[in-house]
Design goal:
This protein is about 50% helix and about 20% strand. With about 675 residues, it is an alpha+beta fold. A 7-stranded mixed β-sheet has the order 13-25-24-23-14-21-22, sandwiched between helices.
Amino acid sequence: MEKIERISVEGMRCTACAKAIESRVKKLNGVKDVRVNFATNSAIIKYDDSKISIEDVKKAIKQLGYGVVERPKEMFTKALTAIFGGILILFVSPVAQLIISTLIIIYSGSNILISAFKSLVNRILNMDVMYSIGILSSYTSSVFAFFSILPKDYIFFETPAMLIAFLSIGKAIEEKAKNRTGDSLSKLAALQTKKAIVLREREIEVETDEIREGDIVLVKPGERVPVDGTLISEYAEVDESAITGEPAIKYKKFGDWIFSGSISKSFLKIKAERVGKDTLISQIVRLVEDAMSSKAPIEKYADKVVSLFIPAVLTVALASFIYWYFHSPILGLTTLIATLVVACPCAFGLATPTAMAVALGKAAEKGILVKNSEVLEIASKVKKIFFDKTGTITNLNPEVVNADTETLRFAAIAELRSEHPIAKAILEKALELGIRVDEPEDFKYYEGKGVEALYKGERILVGSKKFMEENDIHVEFEEGVFVALNKRLIGVIEVADRLRDEAKIVVDELKKMGKEVVIVSGDGKKNVERIAKKLGVEYYAEMLPNEKAELIATHGGAFVGDGINDAAAIAKADVGIAVSKASEITIETADVISKFESIPFFFKLASKTMRKVKQNIFWAIIYNLILIPIAAGLLLPYGISLKPEFAALAMVVSSLCVVTNSLSLRWFE
């Protein structure tokens, strides 16, 4: 049976590590796919559990030198110990230097050395290999000099200590920063309860995973709902703000749907319809996890660069060592160590995944679910956005835009008992104009056609052209709600969609961003044109679902919709967006699920994210182009050099600059 699991990976130091894990795990028999995300320290594994277990996968990752549990809190302690020890070495005797440096390597640097050793055993070059060469070469030469095997000039015990100090503190800060990118995921996961009370002959407490479909679940006031299901209490109050983003308390009646993750404000009795991984909140968590583990095209390009970077740096380091060795052996060793340490594919490797992870988390906080990080890159380039009309740009409550008073009065009397949205619009308009609406003596509803009512002995018909013609009433117009009295047409009421309150704001924001907004609808031209004019946009009317899809395929861009008839167009769009409360098939097809009013924010976030990625890549390239030649001794003839410990500090600063720049997206509004 095919399974998908997410595991946390400990010890990754750059995207080369992630690539090494992917390469190794993919070779395992039974593993169908693996995606390792350095930014979130996670791996999504798709495997056949009849051929391999998840424990076998974890074992393979451990053999590479990585862990599969959360990074321990002691990491900061090790980093601070290394810093304190590195400073202390500068003020003590050579014997004390040897002891302190050795202890720092064992306590604070062992994880780096072990990871490097296992990587070499598996014939994989990662950053730990480069760091370890720098640490061990400086430590070994110091030991040899201490025992007079080499000249005393080769004693620099502070170098390996400071290398480990800077690397450890830098990685600890970087790790903490990267963990923040998963905050939104943690918040979502917190909406999932671990235990629940179910009614099985008697009330019992069970693990949420043990709840079965059809179970009666009891939820006390203040508790979160653990399942999706129907309310079997007569009345309930729930807070669905974590799911819908709407802060108002929702009042539910018997038979209404209750979402998992909602907070009960009264005692609830729910029949479980969707449990475990099928609940809405579980699907949302899985969606965000998958998105954070996916790779944008620009990130795949970065991975290729990193895979070529390490061999190139090793070549430069060796060449600098050989060249300067013949001038001065100690100089050759110093340039070797400095070049190995200062070279930082981490900054380049972090450029994309950290920004993407933060952006995806930020989107989730705003109630926008992005199915993969590639969507952000594509969305940043979108110039044209197509909107479906009914239920997307407009709400589902129509309004009367044109009708004479007498026609409206008879129509309102006939529609008084109807629950149809058009009937409500007619009654609303009549009351607004102060028209008296009497109770009809008789009422009949004809589904999809219209209504018939008897008032003071007169027969009123209200409905479509087809309904009129079925009753032998001739109608010249094509569109409208027609009203007849005693088989005589007395007027027509023009009913149109009601524009969403926030539609104008959303469209104007998109236009300010330079986006071209277009309405695409299957409705008649007159109605679509009226909405388009209000918004100041272009439009296409009387479009069938397949015609919508063909239009989007031809022009490209994004498509925003909500109905089943929008699914084909959403699938054809460069970026398909389903608005909240869209049909299930539309949500499945879409790349993004968003509240209507959050659509401008999504496109702004996509553009901002790609700007951050490009800034990060630019910084990483400039950093390496400038510092690697200096570390290799290019400016030594001019008296300018880079000591290994300062090279380590520069390497850490470069990574932190990239991570900090990405984290600034957290405050983007």
